[in-house]
Amino acid sequence: MGLQQFERRLENLVEGTFAKAFRGGLQPVEIGKRIVREMDLRRAVGLRHVIAPNVFEVVVSPKDMARFETFREALVHELREAIRDHAKDEGYALVGPVEVYLDEDPSLKPGVFMLGAEVREQDNPWYGLLTFEDGTEIPMGEGVLTIGRLASCDIVFSDPSVSRNHAEIRCYDDSVIVTDLGSTNGTKINGKLVQEMRLNDGDILSIGNANIHFKAL
After folding, report:
1. Is 191 helix (H, G, I), strand (E, B) or coil?
2. Between the CA of residue 43 and those of 14, 92, 94, 125, what are the distances in Å?
3. Cα–Cα distance between 68 and 46 in angstroms, integer?
4. Does residue 192 sit in helix, strand or coil?
5. Alpha-carbon distances of 116 from 60, 76, 99, 165, rounded to whole Å
6. What is the pTM assigned to this prediction?
7. Which of 4, 15, 36, 134 gives the lowest tally of CB atoms within 10 Å of its CB?
């Protein structure tokens, strides 16, 4: 699913001024597919989670780098999103922020690239702490937490006022973003309905009848 989303976003990315850069040579989707494969190959089973690489170095030829240069930042962003999406789909834990580095090597021919992948833990892997009304606490690291009535959600409520897939909390780039997933009764932060909003220290997230306190770490 993550790779399919990546391919769809690339279709939008290459429209207009970017289109010429994708005629021949190394295709960005090849890099995305290789990254996803490396995550699967290098995953490791921990005590509580399956841990996957979160830092990737992509090395391309100077000619391919020149083709990518005009949209390099956008491409790196989409690769990061593909990594986060794949980790979410497969249930992989990421112990640090997702990083993608794009470099060049004069010895490489156009269309050929090298990829390095590693698990790199940060000093404080936690973005924040969710505290529920019964005292339960859930720390949040890099990645996505889904909220809803479905058993497949990361945070499950039996409250009928909560939708099956109600909302998600995405942690990345030093931000904690809450997104409503088209829920029936909406998602609130500090009493106000929101579609998407960043959580700040001390905010109260309301899902159905539950109030969840957020503490930044």
Report:
1. coil
2. 31, 8, 10, 18
3. 37
4. strand
5. 12, 15, 12, 35
6. 0.59
7. 134
Count of beta carbons in the 10 Å neighbourhood of residue 72? 12
State the pLDDT at residue 17: 44
- What's the pLDDT at 1? 46
**What is the DSSP secondary structure assignment for residue 138, as one 8-state letter?**
E
Residues 171-199: tens digit of each pLDDT: 877 789 999 999 999 999 999 999 999 99
Residues of the chain with pLDDT under 50: 1-2, 14-17
Return d(Cα 134, Cα 144) in angstroms, integer.
Answer: 23
Residue with tokens 């999406």: 85
Question: What is the rounded distance in angstroms from the CA atom of residue 111 to the CA atom of residue 152?
Answer: 40
Cβ atoms of 85 and 77 within 8 Å: the answer is no
Question: Cβ(13)–Cβ(71) under 8 Å?
Answer: yes
Pick left, alpha or beta for residue 215 (phi over 0 → left; psi -120 to 50 → alpha; otherwise beta): beta
DSSP state of 98: -
